[in-house]
Write a structure and sequence with these properties.
Elements (H helix, E strand, L loop, with lengths): L1 E5 L3 H12 L3 E6 L14 E4 L5 H6 L7 E4 L4 H13 L5 E6 L16 E4 H13 L5 E6 L4 E7 L20 E8 L2 E3 L12 E7 L3 H9 L2 H5 L1
Parallel strand pairs: 1-2, 1-4, 2-3, 4-5, 5-6
Antiparallel strand pairs: 6-7, 7-8, 8-11, 9-10, 9-11
Amino acid sequence: MRVAIAGAGAVGRSIAGELLENGHEVLLIDKAPTAISVERVPQAEWLLADACEITSLDEAALQRCNVVIAATGDDKVNLVVSLLAKTEYGVPRVVARVNNPKNEWLFNEAWGVDVAVSTPRLMSALVEEAVSVGDLVRLLRFSHGDANLVELTLPPESALSGTAVGDVEWPQDTSLVTIIRGSRVLTPSAEETLEAGDELLFVAAQAREEQLEDLLSVRREDAAS
């Protein structure tokens, strides 16, 4: 897979390193000469250019990329790169870094963004996830379909504790994708029984999040009454 990364700072280089280790082709693009540190990621291709310019993206052969990652520290740049990658070059997958959570609402399909990653929001969500039981925590937003990756730790008093996954009437437009139980990562088969303390990861439509949280957090006595 060929991946172009706009922004060769610490974030861009770290992403490049991970992708290269997984066998992908990586092109790093940055307009600042000081950011071109070939020796830090020698296996990557490097391009000194402005990723907001069509001529630069032509030189980068963006149409040959499977994924473009807009990883600069400037939200305006990341939006422009995302829009150009999607509309001018038809890149199948565009991932954009959100630096300021206040700008997160802009990072959507209209701007060519398939997945928006807000580092401040993600860090905050991970803190919440570590201390919250019974509360739904939004980890990641997918622009297509207005869906989110959300997590909820099943509380001991939940009516669903001891229930088989296949017996649960999940809200529409939600999908249970993973159960994390201690050090184990489980694929949620219909026969798998939910246990108190399970970390449940869902892809869910934003409009269904409150309904999902209510379902998972309902107390046994409330369900019985």
